Amino acid sequence: MSSSTPSNAREAALSQLKLGKETAADDTELDIVPRGFGRERFQGASLPFSGFDLWNGYEVSYLDLTGKPQVFHVQMVVDAASRGIVESKSLKLFFNSFNQQTFASRRTFADAVGGRLNEALGVTVELTFFAPQERPPTRRLEGKLLDPYPLTQRPTGYDASLIQATTGVGAFAFHSHLLRSNCPVTNQPDWGAVQITGGGTKHPEPASLLTYLVAMREHQDFHEACCETIFMDLYNTLSPDWLAVSCHYTRRGGWDINPARFTHRPNTVNRGLIWRQ
Questions:
Q1: If DSSP codes are grouped into helix, strand and coil, which group holds residue 58?
Q2: Measured at the alpha carbon of residue 52, what is the angle toward residues 180 and 174, in degrees to the nearest 5?
């Protein structure tokens, strides 16, 4: 029913994070949580997915050569193969540390930020900066809305067995705005939406899929790990020909996180914002 007990190494690492603690304003060290901690429940299985984490930052600023503030919406794409995930409070403090620094151009600012992020994560982080008039467009999630379906039972906790498979042909696509999980450090709720698309001879029965998603309401893990859990539970239940899961969480501390996992990597990243972002 519930997820496996976190390892001692994971607990020790989480206890060192800035999250949930008072921190000095000049503490700009990025906290990186190893991705392996969130994948312990998969018991060493070869992971059938690749993916990325798309972050939207709404409070990014530096000073130009005259001292005038420049403000941006930044989108940051981190490959799921990176050595870890960035803890969001440390990322906020990191970007805030540039607020009173002077840069000659957007490019020099991006190079300074990107260099630090690349070093911390061990991958090349893609950064795109949008001026106020360049804000990314909104988007609608794909597929049938699950939210009107009745629950198959009253969920009592995370339970992968709630997903029921039905015989299907071709592709399926669903989305829900009822996703809620909880921070593993502070236990604060994280609100979001989820989009699920795939194909094969087994499809998820809609009401059971909604019940499963609602059952994550008390589940404790980071956004990225929750997305991977949903992906793996569907993958193990359906044995699909292809599968894609993306979670779109609402903003906290000036940032929202949108992890996406898939069996077949798309050619482009959909950068559109959903209605709560």
A1: strand
A2: 50
| Long-range CB contacts for residues 64-68, cutoff 8 Å, separation at least 24 | 64/102, 64/103, 64/104, 65/102, 65/104, 67/102
Distance of CA 262 to the CA centre of its chain: 13
Residues catalogued as catalytic: 183, 190
Contact 224, 15 (CB under 8 A): no
How many helices (H) and strands (E) the chain has is answered by 6, 12
3-class DSSP state for residue 106?
helix
Q: What does the pLDDT profile of the chain (277 residues) look like in tens digits?
A: 444 455 666 565 555 555 544 555 555 789 999 998 888 888 766 899 999 999 999 999 999 999 999 999 999 999 999 999 999 999 999 999 999 999 999 999 999 999 999 999 999 999 999 999 998 888 999 999 999 999 999 999 999 999 999 999 999 999 999 999 999 999 999 999 999 999 999 999 999 999 999 999 999 999 999 999 999 999 999 999 999 999 999 999 999 999 999 999 888 888 899 998 8
User: pTM value?
Assistant: 0.89
Six-digit token pair at 40? 């312990």
Whole-angstrom distance, CA of residue 252 vs CA of residue 248: 12
Judge contact between 113 and 78, C-beta under 8 A. no
Q: Is 161 helix (H, G, I), strand (E, B) or coil?
A: helix
